[in-house]
Amino acid sequence: MVKKALLQGFGDVDFRLLRVFRTVARCGGLAASEFELNIGRSTISRHISDLEVRLGMTLCYRGPAGFSLSGEGEKVLEATEMLLAAVDGFQNEVDDIHRNMRGTFKLAFFDLSSTNPKAHVHAAISGFETVAPEVNLELSTEPPNVIEAGVINGRYDLGIVPVHRQSAVLSYADLYSEEMILYCGQGHPCFDGVSSDLDLKRLSAFKYAGFGFNSPNMVVGQRMNFRISARVHNEEALCVLIQSGRYLGFLPDHVAAPYVAADTMRPVERDKIRYTTRLAAIVRKRPELNRKTDEFLRCLLQAHGHDRAEV
Domain extents for the chain? Predict the structure, then answer.
């Protein structure tokens, strides 16, 4: 598309078009974003076309071959994320001026905390709703590296991640732990207990599924010389691989519990091959936390028996 950009300044229309573009990119296509945007595909397509005309460039390819961002579209998406994060930051500052907290609070977490008896995120949400009833919540589940980047660039107000390599620009507040145990599925040679003295050398000969990002899981797998044959980015995918009976993998005991009860998974050397992961809340050190984030962090720490002064 060789056209001169018509965009001379930003207005409400431009922000609306950028938000539509970001949603389409996140959802991976026009059809997939219909429900999220609550508008029809033809209208979404027209909005994207209008934005392309205003910017004077092709942002994405859409058609029978599928949806994909152009090179320019990827750069515009990155700039859009930064711009909208800055706008949200401004809104947060304005919200802080008011006595009542308003706007949206964006929380991202990695693990399946809903089944962890040590995790009380739900209690923190309940407490936050009591003191900030006018604030809308937006919850996301992402890999830890995505959460950390999102908190740093303002996409998320607060994240909950496994403690691993800590960033100098983030503050970490310890919350709870989970026990990680090695499991196998039906059909795996270890399922029926090949022996009671399986050592690491024998176990490392089996295929292993682990997280494809820097994490305690990756460190432990490397330390035990496991051969990573499948990489995942969430625990649901890891459960599927272990259930196949072809892979060993570490899961939190609370996540594996229903599968163990159904006898579709079994722990391998439960008392010997395990490790503990600590989960922490992360927020940016700078700028100073807005009222919504500060209040949610207080509720989160209180729900887990910690004091706000510990951060």
Answer: 2-77, 80-174+280-303, 177-277
Tell me the CATH architecture of domain 2-77.
Orthogonal Bundle (1.10)
* Tens digits of residue pLDDT in 138-153: 999 998 989 999 999 8
Stated pTM of the model: 0.69
- CATH code of the domain made up of 80-174+280-303: 3.40.190.10
Separation CA 88–CA 106 (nearest Å) = 11
Angstrom distances, CA of residue 219 to CA of 161, 237, 239: 15, 19, 19
Q: What does the pLDDT look like over 142-187, one tens digit per residue?
A: 989 899 999 998 999 999 999 988 889 999 999 999 999 999 999 9
Cis peptide bond prior to 144, omega within 30° of 0: no
Question: What does the alpha-carbon distance between residue 298 and residue 311 come to, in Å, rounded to a whole number?
Answer: 10
- Considering the segment(s) 177-277 as one domain, its CATH architecture is 3-Layer(aba) Sandwich (3.40)
